Amino acid sequence: MEGEDILYEVRGKVTIITFNIPQKLNALNGEQYLLLAKLVERADKEEDTILTLIQSSGRFFSAGANFADKSLANTDAADLFSHEYWLNRFVARNTYLTELFHNHRKILAAAVNGPVIGLSASLLALCDLIYVKEEKDFYILTPFANLGLVAEGAASATLFLRLGWSKASEALLLAKPISGKDLNNLGFINKTYDGQFKTTEEFNQAVHDELVNAFENLHFDSIIQNKQLLKSNRDQLITSANSKEVIRGFNKWIEGVPQGRFVQLAQKDIKHKF
């Protein structure tokens, strides 16, 4: 899967991880989220890099979890309500993925070419620097309440910290999209490049070049230590949110609530927020 759905490249002092499933709006299934975790961990261990840049292809950064994937439909009915199944497929994976993003030692930046949904939006909120191609085309959506789930990826802490109580409540309680304009005004975005680039590839290259130029004459150990100092202010909140979220989410899966919501969405008995 590596080298196809998610690309990995070391270019000088930068590790680049690219979502490369534009035909599915870069929605990721469980195996792909696990691969993302492994690649972020690998990037953290690269000896000669200072920056990990996550970028995408097509018109969406990531449409979140790929629930059109047939894995749930092909899973034995007994497993769908099994403690062992969801501890492995949900609790362990989400805890691991969130911790790797939160504890990444290098600068963790995102070149965001379009909307970001679900768990991918939660992971974006754990990035240090966020650069957006077009403010008007960008939004984040955390539709957990629409799916019968709860917050994931420590979103219950990061959205509160980065957006404030009111917007975090809209995002999580009402599953309301938060617009690029609001996100920019609230300081979630570091920079937008409105109208400067026709293609995602041009945008990705521009973000890469700007970041390389920004850290070129800096002392790398100071960067890493400053990140540790910044991160220490949120460590307890993120760790607590992650553990609470996965247990509550696990209980939802055991109860069968999301499974029922997915059936209702597929039958169009309820509307998706997307």
TrEMBL record:
GO terms for cellular component: peroxisomal matrix. Keywords: Isomerase, Peroxisome. Gene3D superfamilies: 2-enoyl-CoA Hydratase, Chain A, domain 1. It comes from the Eukaryota. The keyword Isomerase applies. One of its GO terms (biological process) is fatty acid beta-oxidation. It is found in: Peroxisome. Pathway: Lipid metabolism; fatty acid beta-oxidation. One of its GO terms (molecular function) is delta(3)-delta(2)-enoyl-CoA isomerase activity. Belongs to the enoyl-CoA hydratase/isomerase family. PANTHER family: ENOYL-COA DELTA ISOMERASE 2 (PTHR43684:SF1), PTHR43684. This is Uncharacterized protein. It comes from Scheffersomyces stipitis (strain ATCC 58785 / CBS 6054 / NBRC 10063 / NRRL Y-11545) (Yeast).
